[in-house]
């Protein structure tokens, strides 16, 4: 699924399918957070129930995205596997900590992969993104080092938030805080690494 050529679709539809599950989880959590549900004699918090609802929503959106584009990236597949695994642990053990830890695992895996590339003197980002954003090797290495550090900081930040703050705070920071931080960081990289971009011949002066 990840190696087939992607068919173009409306970018708004794509954004809805990619971001919709996270927003849906946030809204469902807000609706259920004060509730306690009893199944089989066991009490489940609103957070646990919201997690259980989130998993099939994510899978449905991914299935629709694959149906429309004929493509799922390795990153999307990896994220789905992590969500299913830790969502299942959360429900099985009735412990919301598992779902909160999955964010640390995701950032940790990203940092590890980039770190392995750096130890080899390579930028794995270049392999993935060079066709989309051609850049000199020096630029890719700088971006890789910076993202490596950023993912470590995000992972540490997630651990700090879920271990020291309320579930309500974690959900808000997970939904909006971390993504906005990462978006702002990437935007800053685009601005500061302009000199390393390889422009098409018609744009070169």
From TrEMBL:
**Signal sequence segment:** none
Predominant location: membrane
InterPro entries hit by this protein: YciB
Q: Which UniProt keywords apply?
A: Cell inner membrane, Cell membrane, Membrane, Transmembrane, Transmembrane helix
Q: How does it sit in the membrane?
A: Multi-pass membrane protein
Any stretches that span the bilayer, and where are they? 12-32, 44-68, 75-93, 105-127, 147-165, 177-198
What Pfam families is this protein classified in? IspA
Subcellular localization, as worded in the UniProt entry:
Cell inner membrane
An example of a Gene Ontology cellular component annotation for this protein is: plasma membrane
Q: What does this protein do?
A: Plays a role in cell envelope biogenesis, maintenance of cell envelope integrity and membrane homeostasis.
Q: Which family does it belong to?
A: Belongs to the YciB family.
Q: Which PANTHER family match?
A: INNER MEMBRANE-SPANNING PROTEIN YCIB, INTRACELLULAR SEPTATION PROTEIN A-RELATED
This chain belongs to the protein called Inner membrane-spanning protein YciB
Give the species this sequence originates from.
Answer: Marinibacterium profundimaris
């Amino acid at each position: 699924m990840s190696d087939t050529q992607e068919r173009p679709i409306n970018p708004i539809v794509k954004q809805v399918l990619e971001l919709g599950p996270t927003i849906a989880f946030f809204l469902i959590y807000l609706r259920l957070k004060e509730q306690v549900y009893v199944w089989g004699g066991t009490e489940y918090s609103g957070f646990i129930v919201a997690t259980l609802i989130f998993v099939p929503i994510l899978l449905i959106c991914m299935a629709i995205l694959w149906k429309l584009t004929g493509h799922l990236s390795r990153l999307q597949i990896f994220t789905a596997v992590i969500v299913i695994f830790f969502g299942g642990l959360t429900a099985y053990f009735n412990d919301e900590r598992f779902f909160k830890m999955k964010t640390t695992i995701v950032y940790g895996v990203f940092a590890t992969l980039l770190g392995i590339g750096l130890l080899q003197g390579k930028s794995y980002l270049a392999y993935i993104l060079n066709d989309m954003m051609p850049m000199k090797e020096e630029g890719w290495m700088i971006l890789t080092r910076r993202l490596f550090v950023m993912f470590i900081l995000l992972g540490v930040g997630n651990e700090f938030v879920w271990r020291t703050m309320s579930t309500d705070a974690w959900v808000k920071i997970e939904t909006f805080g971390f993504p906005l931080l990462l978006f702002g960081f990437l935007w800053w990289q685009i601005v500061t690494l302009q000199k390393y971009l390889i422009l098409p011949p018609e744009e070169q002066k």
